[in-house]
Specification:
There is one protein chain. The protein is α/β, with parallel strands linked by helices and 488 residues long. The protein is built from 14 helices and 23 strands. The strands form five sheets. A nine-stranded mixed β-sheet has the order 7-6-5-8-1-9-19-2-20, with helices on both faces. It has a five-stranded mixed β-sheet with strand order 11-12-15-13-14, with helices on one face. It has a four-stranded mixed β-sheet with strand order 16-17-10-18.
Length: 488
């Protein structure tokens, strides 16, 4: 059986690092990468957390513009005084009250206007799954997840046909195998969807539990790769490989926790009351980052908060939104794609270093949660801001390595271009033309690197920070950010 309709399949390995893609751990993905295009300088968005990046993958925008600032965030038009997790129950409430979870259309919304559909099958968090198509009841398409499906009636239909979802375990392979079955027996052959997505929760879940490169992490990577191999075999056996462009991406890189910090408790001890009070502050913990929301965006409180943060041993680079005003020592939030109507007044990346963990994987970080030795992410560490992207199929070059910077914001515009669809809006990501058959040479894309510095004298020394970005025309990629507390 063949499928003449051009389609795109996106496969996401949550938290997979480039160093893990090797023939010993991932023979199927390694072989896939070798015959297609490898993107050497691929980036997630900052903060390097899943829900922010999932939203960027489907909108082509950075968090400031799509409105999902991080995994935990404050949405002022929903509740100006409460930090919420970006999970499905909470996002349903946001949708009901504010009408929109995302501030921009998704791939599903855009495809629906052109008679197509987007179907996501995922076994990660329910919040991640919900963000792929929050408007499914109006836009069509579908989201399929162990906890729920969109539209609502689809959930029972899936269970009746394929049986109950397996229990979540580590590695989460039984659920991924179930998702592959649904994708290959229903989504692709029956719905004939133009864009399908498969989201593997591994190796992220195992790395959060046991650390990057642990036995559990390695097992999860091998098993996820085997399921990917099963999916590729099905595409080949069914003949669909001839008309299916496959893009394989991860949402972020990874670090190892070197120390856990109770930022909330330290914040209150420093004299900052909750955000519903004058001079108050709300803190949203996001692993390697912390977002701070200031009562009525009061500039004096924001400045006092910034100065206090700069003196903390765990405080890395720091950006401030326009609402915070001019805060000496900070850099502007727009620089890293964090400026927007829901932006926190201050976002802090936790301090990191490049030391290897016991398994030899570089990158350690302070974290707002977890246990030292476990894996985490969220910061501006280059070990988290470097993730994977591989592509192969009839419209991609063969055996090529793209050396220009790319990012998760480039997925949506490239997918729509492959389908010949004008998104109708300006996306921040770019079409990866250098990877396409007939496109420019992969080594002929111009890009620039820019460094931004800021410093501020504080009690006990001088806080200094630097953020590095890369630019391809107007598209910005955050390379890394670092800070130091030195002598005056």
């Amino acid at each position: 059986m063949t499928n003449p309709t051009p389609t795109v399949l996106i496969v996401v390995f949550d938290g997979l690092q480039p160093a893990q893609v090797n023939p010993g751990l991932m023979p199927h993905l390694s072989a896939f990468a070798a015959r297609g295009v490898t993107f050497r300088r691929h980036h997630p968005v900052y903060p390097t957390v899943t829900r922010a990046n999932a939203a960027s993958i489907v909108t082509g925008l950075t968090p400031g513009n799509h409105g999902i600032a991080a995994n935990n965030l404050l949405i002022p038009e929903f509740d100006p005084h409460r930090v919420i997790p970006a999970l499905q129950p909470e996002l349903v409430q946001v949708q009901a009250k504010t009408v929109r979870v995302l501030l921009a259309p998704t791939l599903a919304d855009i495809l629906s206007r052109h008679g197509g559909e987007y179907v996501a099958v995922g076994v990660g968090t329910n919040g991640n799954a919900y963000l792929h198509n929050p408007n499914a009841h109006q836009s069509g398409g579908a989201t399929i997840h162990p906890d729920f499906s969109l539209p609502d009636g689809l959930h029972e239909e899936i269970i009746q046909r394929f049986g109950p979802w397996p229990a979540e375990v580590r590695p989460n392979t039984p659920r991924l195998a179930h998702a592959v079955q649904i994708l290959t027996e229903y989504v692709i052959p029956e719905r004939q969807t133009q864009v399908a997505l498969l989201w593997s929760s591994e190796p992220d879940k195992s790395q959060h539990d046991a650390g990057v490169g642990s036995d559990l992490s390695n097992q999860s990577v091998r098993e996820a790769d085997a399921e990917f191999g099963r999916l590729l075999h099905w595409l080949a056996q069914s003949g669909r490989h001839r008309s299916t462009n496959v893009m394989v991406v991860s949402d972020h890189g990874y670090s190892t926790i070197m120390e856990t910090v109770d930022v909330e408790t330290q914040l209150r001890r420093a004299g900052f009351p909750p955000v519903d009070q004058p001079s108050g502050v709300a803190m949203a913990p996001n692993g390697g980052s912390a977002l701070f929301y200031v009562h009525q965006s009061d500039p004096e409180t924001a400045d006092r908060l910034a100065q206090w943060l700069m003196g903390q041993p765990w405080c890395g680079p720091m950006v401030a939104s326009d609402a915070a005003g001019t805060l000496p020592g900070t850099l502007p939030a727009f620089l890293v794609g964090a400026e927007g109507p829901r932006a926190p007044e201050i976002a802090v990346s936790m301090r990191w270093n490049g030391s290897p963990n016991p398994a030899g994987y570089a990158g350690q970080v302070y974290s707002t949660g977890g246990i030292p030795g476990q894996g985490n992410h969220g910061s501006m560490s280059p070990h988290e801001l470097h993730n994977i992207l591989f592509a192969a199929g009839p419209n991609f070059k063969k055996r090529a390595a793209a050396i220009a910077p790319t990012g998760n914001t480039d997925i949506a515009p490239t997918v729509l271009h492959l389908l010949g669809i004008d998104p109708g809006i300006k996306m921040e990501g770019r079409i990866l033309r250098e990877a396409l058959a007939g496109g420019p040479r992969v080594d002929r894309v111009d890009w620039n690197v820019e460094l931004y510095n800021a410093e501020r004298p504080i009690p006990g020394g001088v806080y200094r920070q630097q953020i590095q970005i890369s630019l391809v025309e107007e598209t910005v990629y955050v390379d890394e950010g670092s800070s130091a507390l030195g002598r005056r």
